Fold this protein.
Amino acid sequence: MDNFTEQNTSNQRGGGRNRQSKGRKVYQRGRVATMRVAKGEAVVRDLRDKIRDTLFVGSHEDDALARLSEQQTLKAITLSITTRGIGLGICHLTYISISYHDTIRIPNIYAMYRVFLGLLEAKLEAIKTDLPIVPRHTEHTQALGVTSDMLRAAQSITIVPEPIRKIINAIGYVKYEEKLYVPAVANRPVDRQGNPVPRPESVLLSTLRATVVALADQQTPQNIRRRFHDNSPIPGAIWNNDVLMNPNDIFFFFFFN
């Protein structure tokens, strides 16, 4: 009986010596957490070095990864627009004026067409100037013929009819899903002789003279004149057998002679 009691007592004492105190357990958990953090940092460093070696072959510079954050020049995506709305807006404005029996007086439709075409072209030029972009597909877009005089004249315009104002204000660059879209007018095709073919979708003030000259010339292929006539954006244009009969009303040639 005595031997059994002594043996049981010794076993209890031995079990007590193997137990850890609460403070010891906290210390051990902190030590394990510290080791995990240190090991994790080492793994991350090794992984970063492997990525750098893969992306920057032959380079071990410390700033290699920082180059990825350098500012890049945007490459804009060209968004083609048409200019037909200017002529259609002027036709609508003229119709309203006639409906009110001259109670609402408006300027000459040909003068308005020239002014608002120039205003639209100046807006396109301003957009191109303000954006730090690399031009793309320039061979497919019209080179704008905006002069300093045109820009000054456009900046002096303070009152624009509502139909025209909505069209011009709607023109601008668009950012969508980290892509930048910049408006541009499609370039005119050329014939076998290298002459630009008039297109009703892409009339600008800088191309208006060449457009009306070609449309008034019977030597211009009839299919070209007919297509323009069927989709004509020029308000007040007078046609006879698909030949433009009043080019001087639309454009004052003596201004440029």
Strands lie at 74-75, 77-81, 133-134, 174-176, 179-185, 239-240, 243-244.
